[in-house]
Amino acid sequence: MSSVSRLENEKKTISDDIRDVYAESKANGFDIKALRAVVRLRKIEATERNEQQLILETYMNALGMLAA
Hints:
Layout lengths: L2 H25 L4 H11 L3 H17 L6
């Protein structure tokens, strides 16, 4: 078996495992959309995440979406 085939098989196994974890989380009452957002945010460095949050809050404030 070529190394590419082996890696493709491993990738599928990992993807299946991730899907199972999300399904189990959903069965335990977690909001999967929020959980995926948290996982995505954890991949970003803290300084960049803080900068993105500040920009988002600035735009939301300009649109009157934040309580004063």
